[in-house]
Amino acid sequence: MCLGIPGKVVATFIEHDVLMGKVDFGGIFKQVCLNLTPDAEVGKYVIVHVGFALQVIDEAEAEKVFEFLKQMDDLQELAADGELASDGDETRVEIVP
């Protein structure tokens, strides 16, 4: 399974003929390849997987993903307290929209 994380483009630049960007992931800044999303520009949100922006999304969609990830973190806290079902080394979590 792959997980793409939204981030906000705060700067764009060309490096070795490749469109790159500085992307803010909630206070953590990373360099990301924007070549697959040439319409990404400063102020827009992108979905990033392994250092590549795969899609430009609007702020509302990014906020939905941030909320989902926050809920996942809350579930991890429950798992640490032993409140989730467990099968050996795997913890099962059912998420119902």
Strand order of the largest sheet: 3-2-1-4-5
Sheet/helix structural class: alpha+beta
Order of helices and strands: EEEEEHEE
The average pLDDT is: 82
Low-pLDDT runs: 83-97
Q: What is the overall silhouette?
A: elongated
CA-atom Rg in angstroms = 16 Å
**Helix content estimate:** 10-25%
Q: Counting H and I runs of at least 4 residues, what is the number of helices? A: 1
Amino-to-carboxy terminus distance: 19 Å
Strand segment count: 7
Main beta sheet strand tally, sense and closure: 5 strands, antiparallel
What share of the residues does DSSP label as strand, in percent?
Answer: 35-45%
Present the secondary structure layout:
Elements: E1 5-15, E2 18-25, E3 28-33, E4 45-49, E5 52-57, H1 59-80, E6 86-87, E7 90-91
Antiparallel strand pairs: 1-2, 1-4, 2-3, 4-5, 6-7
Characterise this structure.
- This protein is an alpha+beta fold and 97 residues long.
- It has one helix and seven strands.
- The strands form two sheets. A five-stranded antiparallel β-sheet has the order 3-2-1-4-5, covered by helices on one side.
- A hairpin with a 2-residue loop joins strand 6 and strand 7.
- The chain is elongated.
- The C terminus is likely disordered.
Give keywords.
single chain, 97 residues, alpha+beta, 5-stranded antiparallel β-sheet, two-stranded antiparallel ribbon, 1 helix, 23% helix, elongated, disordered C terminus
